[in-house]
Amino acid sequence: MSSRKSGIFYGILIAVVSVVTGMVLASRLDLMPASFAGNLNVPATNSAPLSGPIDSTTFRNIAREQSPAVVSIAVSGHKQASAEDLGGMNFFFGPNGPQANGRRGGGGANQQVPFSGAGSGFIIDKAGYILTNNHVVEDAEEITVKLAGMGEFDDALAAKVVGRDKLADVALIQLTEMPKQPLTESKFGDSSQIAPGDWVMAIGNPFGLSGTVTVGVVSAVGRPTLASQSNGGVRVEKMIQTDAAINPGNSGGPLLNIRGEVIGINTMIFAEQQNSGNLGVGFAVPINEVSGLLPGLKVGKVIRGRIGVMVSRFPITSDVRQLKGLPAEGGALISSVDESGPASLAGVKMGDVVVAFNGKPVVDDSDLVEMVTATAPGTTVPVKVIRDKKALTLNVKVGQLDLAQETGAQSPRPAPSRPPRQQAPQVEPKATAFGLTISDVTASLAQRLSLPEGRTGAVVTSVEPRSSAARAGLGAGDVIVQVNNKAVTTRDQVAAALEATPSGGAAEVVVIRDGREQLLLLRNR
User: Fold this and answer.
1) Which domain holds residue 355?
2) Distance between CA atoms of 441 and 422, rounded to whole angstroms?
3) Average pLDDT per block of 10 residues along the chain, 525 residues long
4) Closest alpha carbon to 23 in 445, 247, 341, 425
5) What is the set of active-site residues?
6) Is residue 240 part of a domain?
């Protein structure tokens, strides 16, 4: 995936972001009122070591015992039409829609189109609570559930949403019609114990084929994964990757360990094209993360922490460690700081490397994101940073941010007009190291780029594909104002500073993008 797409996630996850970075935030995510009586009994997590032989009956027994807890979910409703909807594109994990009823083109931006879809879920409480994916039930006006053993002509049971979390793509629904027979509850395993090579089983409703069982292994754990949301946003999570077959309709179903315990919620697949089937690369949200969200989902509100920084999506390599004077491996490079955010108020600055958060070492950017979002707003935590090759500890009071406000999801906004990124400015370009072509910033160009008064530098006119600049996330229209902590005001100054970077070394480049400063790392390979 491109570094620009990776950066978009963090604009959703942690304040306003672009390209190769992301912000650490938290929010209330699509709040739904808690409208059902009764307590939710969260299944206990079995953290006993996975051990014991696997024989010819192992998977048969898991399927027999756990299939009754897996349900098929059907949804229907109306949603605001998008270009894809009007072109007849199908919902990623539903075999039927949302559909645009065959219409192509026409209609305005506010046009509502009907859709129908299908997915999976699993029962976690005898009171009728069911876990599934948010994208399965999002925008649904009607939700019906079929239990294992129900036939094609059996009446489905009505259900309603209790709480949804867009960020983790998890939803809690509850049956409003109960069956005569008692419900079978799922059991939770410990997803932190899962390792590549472990056997796993998926049960779900692919292509409307309820109760389908597939078996495979864990391919990877902690896989940083970019996933599109139905509202046009994206997110990044550390997921469980598996080659157990997952297809459209499996979304929301359980991924089980060899004890038949849920260790993940099947969420998405890697596909070469829209609506293609399983290629052996599927992803599941770890159940340990979901367990922590259940109390919030039950009351319709999930709250996460936010400190208001953007962090580089690139790993801290040996050349960066040398450049920043880091004592050990790991850390998250702060590429931008919200001036009014909690981190800024505590003294965190652009270019700092966070090496510990609340006493725990920070491995990488995703690690910092997880730590911050898991921290209760209002909590003051020590944050250890490396600045100018010296260690500092700053006390940051974690804040809270509304995701809808951060992403503009409350009211759709037109894409901003950015002519400098669409066509290169016609001002004497000069090729430089790292695959960049730059030009001096003229007065008219400064106005077009909305540069702050008095700021100037060198504007990027083009970037070679697969170059160091492209990997760092630089693009046409970025204005370079600083290289390696030194201000630069002309293209020749920028070129000279970049060319002075030794082979195998890294250069810190500060750019102004959309009126905001951002730090990027360029590597001289």
Assistant:
1) 3-27+307-407
2) 17
3) 40 34 31 44 86 90 95 90 47 39 45 88 95 93 93 89 91 94 95 95 91 94 61 58 91 95 91 66 93 90 88 81 85 90 93 93 87 90 93 93 53 37 54 84 80 83 87 87 88 87 83 86 79
4) 341
5) 135, 169, 251
6) no
